[in-house]
Amino acid sequence: MDQPRDITPPQTSPETAPYWEAAREGRLLVKRCDACGERHAYPRSLCPFCFSGRTAWEEASGRGTIYAFSIMRRAKIPYAVAYVTLEEGPTVISNIVGADFDALRIGQAVRLDFRAATDGQPIPMFTPDASGAEEER
Amino acid sequence: MGSDGRTMPEPRACIAGIFEHPTRRADDKSLAQLHAEVAAGALRDAGLSHADVDGYFCAGDAPGLGPLSMVDYLGLRVRHVDTTDTGGSAYLVHVAHAAEAIAARKCNVALITLAGRPLAEGLGSGLGLRLDNMPDVPFEAPYGTAVLNLYAMVAARHMHEFGTTSEQLAWIKVAASHHAQHNPNAVLRKVLTVEEVLASPMVADPLRKHDCCVINDGGGALVVTRPEIARSLGRPVVSLRGTGTALKNQAGGRVDLTYSAGRFSGAAAFAEAGVTPADIRYASIYDSFTITVLVTLEDLGFCEKGRGGDFVADGNLIAGVGRLAFNTDGGGLCSNHPGNRGGMTKVIEAVRQLRGEAHPAVQVPDLHLALAHGTGGSLGTRHGSATLILERA
Asked: What is the pLDDT of residues B96-123, one digit of tens each?
């Protein structure tokens, strides 16, 4: 099982403040473009697919699957970095927490969890979800 | 002649001078001094002088604002500069840009320098980026992303999709170590076995210590000239036949770690050169990690996507043994990864091979074509690839 580690706080900006405010309320946001309908991550003001400025925040379900992961064994406190594919589509960098690292697998279902950065900001992370849907491949 | 029998056009530019700094630990030198020493070395190698240089190229490893401090420090009088930075591949991009500048008559003699002293400065890995105001870093840094674990995820996904094994990755290090034994300047000169690579500590699953390149101080430089200048110097002439540069990233969340931008830079370079991977018997392949080599070989077309593990196994990358000799200086995996930027040395060893100046134990006989490839930044997030195809005239 993972141990608590010092988490670097994110530098926030006017563009991304709503994302981090939502995290303080236990919610994960993604950006959706009203012009092309595509969701993207990390969040931008202008859609990276069609460059429309009509992007809006949308709450994600918090469910996803592990696309890839690696256990940083070299660190004083080992941790699992991962790409998680959200149910909504985008794949994001995250950590897998509350997990037996040796039991992690690509395709495994995970759900949203949070860990606080050193300044108290909750950071969206993921934990294994035994009830979640696995990726087929 | 190209592989299809066409007569090749006059090349746009030649690599007339190369120099690899012999140091691997530069406690006693300044960063600017290292740049000057490699510049002097490459000009000496070319048979050109400091006064001949009218174009200067450097990347983010050079101290100062763009080229301003270095051009001043070096005492250059230049009319063309370029400070494109794509991490460790920047110097291959510079070769491509130098050829374009020469063709456009913006300069005749382009000097490209790289130097770094991460050991002397106690920096370890990393590219020394300023992290403020970056749009992507706040969504990565809290998670402890590092060059190491991002490349490890590329390896993990490759293993998952294609069944690639740690043993296959280990063969890449083994091949590099076979070459490094002949290089007196190499950081690691011990010949390794697959078993020894697999016995090294796991640092970020599935990558082990021996899957990683060395971290060291050093540098290198290139002189790129107009072909008629290169031919006047009395040295073997190495001309640039094809170049390609490309970027790849997380694509707004449409992440695919199974391939690199080398797919695009390689295709462009081969198309311009009018040759195919089957024509290439020596390749310098960027080797920050073993997985970097494996993915790149697939993307350049040396084998099908997903079959890189089979391609690199059983010594297929060892000079005199396998189908494709790679990184015969020992590469970044065993010899030199100066300033955490390995592209410069990739070009240098490819030029040595084409001149017949590689170590006799690893020299590919009768070599006329060579490929050099760089991968800068992180294969796991954002990277810039550059491919050069070089020919011995």
From this structure: 999 999 999 999 999 999 999 999 998 8
CA-CA distance, B112 to B303, in Å (whole number)? 32
Most B-contacting residue of A70, A76, A106 (CB-CB within 10 A), to test interface: A70
Per-residue model confidence as pLDDT tens digits over A24-61: 999 999 999 999 999 999 999 999 999 999 999 999 99
Q: Which of A93, A97, A137 has the most B C-beta neighbours within 10 Å, making it the best mutation to test the interface with B?
A: A93
Chain A interface includes B130 (CB < 8 A) = no
Question: 3-state DSSP call for residue B226?
Answer: coil
A contacts of B135 (beta carbons < 8 Å): 15, 42, 44
Q: Angle at CA A37, nearest 5°, toward A132 and A28? A: 40
Quote the tokens at residue B192: 């390794």
Q: Which two tokens stand for residue B154?
A: 């590329």
Residue of A nearest to B140 (CA): A93
DSSP E strands, B101-142: 109-116
Q: Are B262 and B371 in contact (CB under 8 A)?
A: no
Residues of chain A positioned with their CB less than 8 A from the CB of B206: 70
| Inter-chain residue contact A11 with B150, CB threshold 8 Å | no
Residue-level pLDDT at B9: 76
Which of A40, A68, A93 shows the shortest C-beta gap to B252? A40
For residues B136 and A42, the answer to whether their CB atoms sit within 8 Å is yes
B101 falls within a domain = yes
Range of the domain at B112: 14-122+218-238
pTM of the model as a whole: 0.96
Does residue B55 sit within a domain?
yes
The low-confidence residues of chain B, meaning pLDDT below 70, are: 1-8, 124-130
Mean pLDDT of A59-69: 98
Scanning B52-162, the segments in alpha helix (DSSP H) are 68-74, 90-103, 147-162
Residues of chain B contacting residue A83, judged by C-beta atoms under 8 Å apart: 153, 255, 257
Q: CA-to-CA distance for B337 and B180, rounded, in angstroms? A: 13
Q: Which of B53, B5, B58, B44 is nearest to B225 (CA)?
A: B53
Q: Decide if A91 and B137 are in contact by the 8 Å CB cutoff.
A: no
Interface test with A, best of B255, B291, B295 (most A CBs within 10 A): B255
Contact between chains at B252 and A106 (C-beta distance less than 8 A): no
Write the burial class of residue A120 (CB in 10 Å: 0-12 exposed, 13-18 middle, 19+ buried).
exposed
CATH number, domain A17-128, options 3.40.50.1820, 3.20.20.70, 2.40.50.840, 2.60.120.10 = 2.40.50.840
